[in-house]
Amino acid sequence: MLSLNTLRMLCTSRALLHHSRLMTKRQSVCITVTCAAHCMSTSFPKKDTWHGNMDLKAPGKERKRIYSTCPASSIRNYCTGQVKLNCWNCKQPLDTTPVFFCMSCKVIQPPEEDASYFKIMDCDFTFTLDTQKLQKRYLQLQRSLHPDNFSQQSVKEQEYSESHSALVNKAYQTLLKPLSRGLYMLELEGVRTEEGTDSGADSAFLMELMEINEALDEVRTPEDANKIGRDTKGKLAVLTEAIDAALLEGELQAAKALLAQMKYYANIEEKVKEKLSEFM
After folding, report:
1. Is-cis flag, bond preceding 110, omega within 30?
2. How far separated are the first and last CA of the chain, in Å rounded?
3. Per-residue b/e over 61-79, b at no fewer than 16 CB within 10 Å?
4. Rg of the chain (C-alpha set)
5. pLDDT band for position 206 (cuts 50, 70, 90)
6. Of 9-13, 21-25, 48-52, 156-160, which range is least confident?
7. What is the CA 241 to chain-centroid distance, rounded?
8. Can you tell me the distance from the alpha carbon of 86 to that of 92, in angstroms, rounded to the nearest whole number?
9. How far is C-alpha 222 from the chain's CA centre?
10. In Å, how far from its chain's centre is CA 37?
11. What is the rounded distance in angstroms from the CA atom of residue 36 to the CA atom of residue 19?
């Protein structure tokens, strides 16, 4: 009889069998994307073929998502909105989106609750985003939007500051880690993952998870824990490549299955950290 912990770790691994096929397709798709970017150089500079350096002062000018799948709901959530807004204070038009401050009167604006986290954090819509750029953007926004800066302002401005700060923090935490980032990307594509729905796990994958957890329970030295940690990081690296390839190819169900596997390996990685802390 499987333990409750084991049952919770059930997930599908059949998608991993397609890893080499996805990676082959990815190379083909990347060539296509690169050629398209070259042909459309008037819209997308060459240096922006993969990871673009977008102007922080004009986030509304960012390029469209690089993934091939772009349903109407995704476009609505990620691409630049067409609705023209005016400053609530001076009534002047707001040219950029998302907008934090009015360029005319410098007053903080209400947050756009339906704005994509990728737009808020000025990041490309990609699973392998630049986390250093993400962290830099986060610090920049929190410095300018922190409620302490508005303690002497109107109640409305204080409320906007608090809302902006909370939204930026949530966006940052979601995009920082690969697992939550990937699940959010699937959500934008209309694919939701619900807790407790993993089933039909491959027996070999299930046995591997059981063996890793048993080995972790029997760890007696930091060296043993570190070895399991290194092996887990290697598996997560392989999964990251496979998930990126699946998303790039538009194989959303395969990406969902791979993210389910990533969830359990990420849990093992956390357990390794906890085990190492016991030796300190």
Report:
1. no
2. 35
3. ebbebbbeebeeebeebbb
4. 22
5. confident
6. 48-52
7. 14
8. 5
9. 31
10. 23
11. 25
